[in-house]
Design brief:
The protein is α/β, with parallel strands linked by helices. The protein has two domains: 157 residues, 3-Layer(aba) Sandwich (Rossmann fold); 64 residues, no CATH class. 35% of the residues lie in helices and 26% in strands. The protein has eight helices and ten strands. It is globular, with a radius of gyration of 18 Å.
Length: 237
């Protein structure tokens, strides 16, 4: 469902991502880890077609995101870090707007808007301006618009960044429900989310993939996830 094949992105002599390859199969929830500046967001943007790769191929559900982006995007829901929303609009009007942009109308539009409102628990803030919502609720609105067209694949970049513990718990609950039927690639700095949500961990450092395997095998020596992460991402690894 998600495939990176020798993906690289160069800015002059600087490599934001270098020769990254992995496959994520249907129904997997995969945590994507790395320190700040490691290339996580760049790699996610390459996978979604937001950026074009300097080398390699990104595929979503078999569609090359450089040459067949519209077909791939129809199968994809993307929530970037600090996802763009319109602060003067309400959650309901934003969802109506995105439904129109995706060509929905009539019963389909009504059913999908109501479905994501329920899934993301937005009913209590439905008609408040987005500018007045907490960051947790804004994240939920972003998640709702990413789910509006019933995508098979979700790519989520730091969905709990900057949230308080209660908001983190609420967003995690939403992601757990989604993980029962979606393929998810989740970028995070919070290692507890790896244990709570993921089946597998991919780690990148300095633009390169340094580890890829099941969560159950990520810490074989029992030294703790923090220590394993530190060892994998220290300079020069």
């Amino acid at each position: 469902m998600i495939e990176a094949e020798h993906l690289s992105k160069f800015y002059g002599v600087f490599a934001a991502s270098r020769d990254i390859s992995f496959k994520i199969h249907q129904g997997e929830v995969v945590a994507f880890l790395g320190p700040n500046g490691a290339g996580k967001s760049t790699t996610m943007k390459l996978l979604t077609g937001y950026l074009s790769p300097s080398e390699g191929v990104a595929r979503i559900a078999g569609h090359d995101m450089s040459t067949d982006r519209l077909a791939g995007s129809a199968r994809l829901g993307y929530l970037p870090e600090n996802g763009p929303l319109y602060p003067d609009m309400t959650p309901h009007s934003v969802l109506e707007f995105f439904a129109d942009a995706r060509g929905m109308d009539g019963d389909q539009k009504h059913e999908r808007v109501e479905a994501v409102i329920d899934l993301c628990d937005l009913s209590s803030v439905l008609h408040k301006p987005i500018s007045k919502l907490s960051k947790g609720y804004r994240q939920r609105v972003g998640m709702a618009q990413a789910l509006l067209h019933e995508p098979d694949v979700l790519i989520l970049d730091e969905p709990t960044a900057g949230l308080d513990p209660n908001q983190i718990r609420e967003v995690r609950q939403t992601m757990r429900r989604l993980g029962e039927e979606k393929t998810i690639l989740l970028s995070t700095h919070i290692l507890q989310e790896v244990e709570a949500l993921a089946d597998r961990v991919i780690v990148i450092n300095e633009g390169r993939l340094v580890s890829d395997g099941p969560v159950s095998e990520f810490d074989p020596k029992g030294v703790g996830l923090d220590e394993v992460f530190r060892q994998l991402t220290k300079a020069g690894v």
